Amino acid sequence: FSSFHTKGKDTIIFVTKEDHAAPSSAELVEEDPNDPYEERGLILPSGEINWNCPCLGGMASGPCGTAFKDAFSCFHYSKEEVKGSECMDQFRSMQECMQRFPELYPQEDDKVQQEKSETHEASQSSETAEMSGTDSAPAEDSNTTQCVVHGFLLPVS
Amino acid sequence: MLKCRTVWKKLAPLARSSSTVCRQNVRRAVLNNGRTPAQVPAAHMSTGPAGGGRENQLYALLVGAACLGGGIYAYRTVKGDQRRYEERLSEIASRPHRAAPQETLSEPEPLAAEAAETEVPAPEPEPQAEPSPEEPSPPAPEAEVVAPSETTEIPPGGDVAPVASKIPSHARYLLIGGGTASFAAARSIRARDPGARVLIVTDEPDLPYMRPPLSKELWFSDDPSVTETLRFKQWNGKERSIYFQPPSFYINPEELNSAENGGVAVLTGKKVVHMDVRGNKVKLDDDTEIAYDKCLIATGGVPRNLQVIERAGEEVMSKTTLFRKIEDFKLLDKVSRNIKSVTIIGGGFLGSELACALGRRSAESDLEVIQMFPEKGNMGKVLPEYLSNWTTEKVKKEGVKIISEALVKSVVAKDDKLEILLKDGRLVKTDHIVAAVGLEPNVDLAKSAGLEVDSDFGGYRVNAELQARSNIWVAGDAACFYDIRLGRRRVEHHDHAVVSGRLAGENMTGASKPYWHQSMFWSDLGPDVGYEAIGIVDSSLPTVGVFAKATAKDTPKAATEKSGTGIRSESETEDTAVSPVASSTPAPPTVGHKDDYGKGVIFYLRDKVVVGIILWNVFNRMPIARKIIKDGEEHADLNEVAKLFNIHED
């Protein structure tokens, strides 16, 4: 223990790396996976899509929100061998919608996926305004989202 | 009001008892007089028998006079208090009204010379003149006589509209206020209610934007046109605008109710002045009425001013900035380039951030930056004293002259400068003042709507689900809400606006969820101090700070210097030991001073439970901090809890 002193009501402790090497003995309350109040990631415990996930940015709420929801829902519930293969119509109408708003959905062909992920990150970080990532759960989901979003954007572009 | 009541309560029994005494004495006197009718039958009307009777009556007269005097005093005190209270209320009410006319007037004002350009009401193709990439194409959200005095050349929102734009008479979701909370709610509603029609009404001329960059990133931008583009670089290097979405995201208010898939419309330059809760409708400042199904009040607040400045006259007021909005940023940026000295009054988040931003600018120019506040150090109400002092030294290194324990007595305009006289006699001469002394939550609608206002924290009082009444929710700076874990509070941070706006939006679409996900906040003061915080972070609470014993690697700057582990030992037992490893490093270690709070975690305790945490120069650990607050457990050894944060890692 390196140093411990108090200044009135405030306690100040300096610790070295070695001091903190041993695992913590602090006990944390176990998480309830079905807690109705908790913020959820992209997929809710029920299996439904959480359209309000910060990871989606403005995708579900913008002018093409409905088209996006239709396409993504179709993809999500698709049981085909090539997931989402029966959803081409929805993807097409979503693409058409997005082309009408190039500002919101940048359409440069090579950069579509990259830009999307950046828009997601940017919207996420702007919406939650944290330095990086929000909760651990949604953060993981956001990675999956990007994979998923990339995934179902690939056949379209 | 409470004072009146207490005064009255105190005086009432006194009055009552003295009146009882009066009455008893009078009765006694009369009875005494009455007992001597035999002696002087007709004389009981007069002073009665000499001696005893007269004394009694004199006594009765004196007591009566005292009662009367007491009664008059009590009456005057109560009346005076009531008068003072009403004066205060009307003063508060007049403040936003004073601000409002500046925004909604269509005549050019002497304030902003640029106003002349924006006054053209004709539907010019303004957007084309604008350098910003956020060009609206046809769907430009508009406001009729919008963009008056305080906006500069071209509002990037591109909100000049065809003169006749109709306001919908009904909106399913009506959001009053166009800030962060409102936008977060709009997004939440649209996500959960497919095809939702959301109308945002704001008295500002701008589309919803985020506030933190106005006192941080925008000042550090290398782009000289930053005041026009309002773009900044994020932590990940990517650039973005402070506007949440470009104008094409929104639809025209008049198209709102006919759009197939709904949308979000923003009505700028309109102020809601009256709310009819029974009739479910609001009235705007131009007498238009809008009926709603669900309503969110997210009116934020107005910067407070010092009374001494308000009373100091026009010239002083014209050289004072109350910093909150985009136009304040633009004005301060311009002014700071043309003056020699600026003084920031206020030592909290905003004041300190602006001081650091201007301080950094002073390195290139010869601008004198002064910051004054009543506390002993920067963030004195947030950080424990030792850390506040340490931070103040860092702020000084950013080029700021700190005047602490400063109470402003008066401000006068003299010889084209401002003279600030402090209560302890110190005199400060400066060219411009920035007042960052707090926010007054905007509760203008409370009266007409019959909504409760919280007397402790200010703001509209709402429950844990942010609801004020059926169909009315409040979010953001203006909401005094019940936090299940931490109790009733009102929070004025950006992330809270986002979290509460989202929650309100969820509840407006039927979620019935309480405030549960704890919001956080952050601040950066120069290259050495950056922290994230969560929960109740009040310096009056007992704190436990666990800091990493500084190695030279820990400060961002020292990444370039490789002085290894030459740390001067700090513990008592090694007091006399010679610094062992230092011999290998020729230069003295840059860090390693005993009081170097390079990085660590600080716990704020209330009844032994952690209610607030600051992550001091450690990042990406907010989820753990959030979990600890949520658990609300008593931890015997906070050093063990601190281990969870791995403060020695990057």
Automatic annotation (TrEMBL), chain A:
<keyword id="KW-0560">Oxidoreductase</keyword>
<dbReference type="InterPro" id="IPR039289">
    <property type="entry name" value="CHCHD4"/>
</dbReference>
<keyword id="KW-0676">Redox-active center</keyword>
<keyword id="KW-1015">Disulfide bond</keyword>
<dbReference type="GO" id="GO:0015035">
    <property type="term" value="F:protein-disulfide reductase activity"/>
</dbReference>
<keyword id="KW-0811">Translocation</keyword>
<dbReference type="GO" id="GO:0005758">
    <property type="term" value="C:mitochondrial intermembrane space"/>
</dbReference>
<keyword id="KW-0653">Protein transport</keyword>
<feature type="compositionally biased region" description="Basic and acidic residues">
    <location>
        <begin position="108"/>
        <end position="121"/>
    </location>
</feature>
<keyword id="KW-0496">Mitochondrion</keyword>
<dbReference type="GO" id="GO:0033108">
    <property type="term" value="P:mitochondrial respiratory chain complex assembly"/>
</dbReference>
<keyword id="KW-0813">Transport</keyword>
<feature type="compositionally biased region" description="Polar residues">
    <location>
        <begin position="122"/>
        <end position="144"/>
    </location>
</feature>
<feature type="region of interest" description="Disordered">
    <location>
        <begin position="104"/>
        <end position="144"/>
    </location>
</feature>
<protein>
    <submittedName>
        <fullName>Coiled-coil-helix-coiled-coil-helix domain containing 4b</fullName>
    </submittedName>
</protein>
<dbReference type="GO" id="GO:0045041">
    <property type="term" value="P:protein import into mitochondrial intermembrane space"/>
</dbReference>
